[in-house]
């Protein structure tokens, strides 16, 4: 999926440079830097401390039916095999919903208590 997005952006840049005024080299560099900055912000990966366990969270973009969605994944490899997953239109919402999904699954498997889960399921 990333190669298709990058190929499409390259084609768009070439077309834009053909129709822009000739001294566009400075504009081209600023445009490319801006686009690459926005694209790199779509992918995110981090390690967090969750109830005394080291856990990982990942967010990545996904196109479905020409719409941008963000898929979130939350997992704690040293603690359990469970994974929390989500797909939302919101970047921050994908991480939040993945954590909530993980908490629901951990509660069902009796890894955490209802009191511990309540704090994470509120927000």
Automatic annotation (TrEMBL):
The organism's place on the tree of life at top rank: Eukaryota
Q: Do you know which Gene3D superfamilies this protein is assigned to?
A: 3.30.160.320
The GO annotation for biological process reads:
defense response to bacterium
Report the leader peptide range. Answer: 1-26
A Pfam family hit:
Anti-LPS-SCYG
> Keywords assigned by UniProt?
Antibiotic, Antimicrobial, Signal
What is the protein's name according to its record? ALF2
- Which species is the source of this protein? Scylla paramamosain
């Amino acid at each position: 999926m990333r190669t298709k997005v990058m190929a499409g952006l390259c084609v768009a840049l070439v077309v834009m440079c053909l129709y822009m005024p000739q001294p566009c080299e400075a504009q081209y560099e600023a445009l490319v830097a801006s686009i690459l900055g926005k694209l790199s912000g779509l992918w995110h990966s981090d390690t967090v401390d969750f109830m005394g366990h080291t856990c990982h969270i990942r967010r990545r973009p996904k196109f479905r039916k020409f719409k941008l969605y963000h898929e979130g994944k939350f997992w704690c490899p040293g603690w359990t095999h469970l994974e929390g997953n989500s797909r939302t239109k919101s970047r921050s919402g994908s991480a939040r919903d993945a954590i909530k999904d993980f908490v629901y699954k951990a509660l069902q498997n009796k890894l955490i208590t209802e009191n511990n889960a309540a704090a994470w399921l509120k927000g």
